[in-house]
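Job type: complex structure
Entries:
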Amino acid sequence: MKLSQGVEWMLHGVGVIAHAPPGTSVARRVLAEQYDLPEAYLAKHLKALVRAGILTATTGPAGGFRLARDPADITALEIVEAIEGSASPFVCQEIRQRGLVAVPPELCRRPCGISTVMDRAHQAWRESLRDVTVVDLMRLIPKSLRDKLVARLAANAR
Amino acid sequence: MKLSQGVEWMLHGVGVIAHAPPGTSVARRVLAEQYDLPEAYLAKHLKALVRAGILTATTGPAGGFRLARDPADITALEIVEAIEGSASPFVCQEIRQRGLVAVPPELCRRPCGISTVMDRAHQAWRESLRDVTVVDLMRLIPKSLRDKLVARLAANAR
DNA sequence: GAGTCTGTACTCGGATATCTTCTGTCCGAGTTCTCTAGG
DNA sequence: CCTAGAGAACTCGGACAGAAGATATCCGAGTACAGACTC
């Protein structure tokens, strides 16, 4: 079980985009330089966030990415699932219905108990991430650096 | 993020092994037939559980696998982590220390805030799985099938 | 008849290919700004 | 001097290779039982 590193990039990245001056966008080049990330690959993950309705993208010289909604309405869970997908990491293959002591289909109306156990854990994980909003992510940046960040974003906004 | 299917196999498998008559082992062939699984690949995961101290393996004609400890002392979390590893699915690459607005090392004594958020979610996931023991897994098998299972295990024990 | 020895059959364990998924990259479509030319 | 037009530069988006990990498999090492042989 491994999370894509795009999750880390986007959790940091959305926190940066959220600091952009109102009405301005952050170009992916600016974001890539911010953390010294490969720009082309970063694009892939940004695109996923646009599809998920978390960011909006505008093209052209003054284009870039900005939040699609209020930062308080966007959760870390949404960001993670935009990249990793919302499917559970545990996929029940119904092996109980196979083999020598197969469970007859009429007893399989309810999901497999193992599957329930795993899903419950997954829900606990999701709940934890749902409690964190982009506002919280913004607060994670040390204050001294926040000023530098905002200055840089303002300088790159056109 | 995807869990190996070995997790499903072993959660079911340990539940089966736990039903073996006292003093007997379950051969991997018997376990493979139980759910119609590829025996050779199943071996890989069983080995992982032996390394983790969850099962003990004995060779020879009457050999096989049995629980290394009391079923009430073995948690689902142990089984999952024996296969997937105990590392967090989120690995912090410390990208905050890179790029144009890099955080100076003296401010990085504490772990990155993003990392903390993800680790908290991971701990919630682990806690949920830690609450489930092998005894619980045994109870997940419907009673009517449990009798058939025990009979089969007794017939294959030598 | 009892004990011992040898052989066989059965078990698990490590090393080895194949394939899907993540990682990384490139070039094309679209838009806005700017510069220039004309009125 | 002002306005309109065309060009250029900058943006994002989808299609294309390479690498790492999961999946699947085989053959070898070790052990307990069973049979046969000897005393």
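Summary: The longest strand of chain A covers residues 55-58. Chain A touches chain B through 55 residues (CB under 8 Å).
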